[in-house]
Design brief:
By secondary structure, the protein is of the alpha/beta class. The chain contains five helices and nine strands, in the order βββββαβαβαβαβα. The strands form two sheets. A five-stranded parallel sheet has the order 7-6-1-8-9, sandwiched between helices.
Length: 163
Amino acid sequence: MTKLVVFDLDETLWSLSEGYCALMRPPWTRRGDHVSDAGGLHLTLRPEARDTLDALDERGLLLSAASRSTPETAGEILKLLGLFGRFMCPCFAWQDKDLSLSQILQDLERERGIRLDPSEVLFIDDWPSNIRDALRVGIPGLIFGQDIHSLSEVLDHVNGRSG
């Protein structure tokens, strides 16, 4: 049964004009679900992202984020979009995703007293190698753009897994 859904950010929760959100530099400008920086880089939250996060939350699932980035970029952009508080113990670090996911589980237990088995976690990412990293620590995943093509499809998967 899925209890925690962890989202990658770049090209999963949002799409980018190029590269990683870590390339973006403040000051940032927000227009709706679109964020741009002074250099012309921009990202756009996927249209179904907010509704999907709401629906997962309504089902009582915990949410987190794992991204190869820094809190100064990914964290601030999530705050600007009004989403940072939705994610428990997010991990923004330039490391393999198995390490980030393990860190999230450790932080949830240490900071919140929430102990989860890796099999109770679902990881969503656009890179197959990151899903393979997650599987190394027992966390199943979905490849955005291959296993699912819309974030709303996460709901179907969670419903199917939770029975």
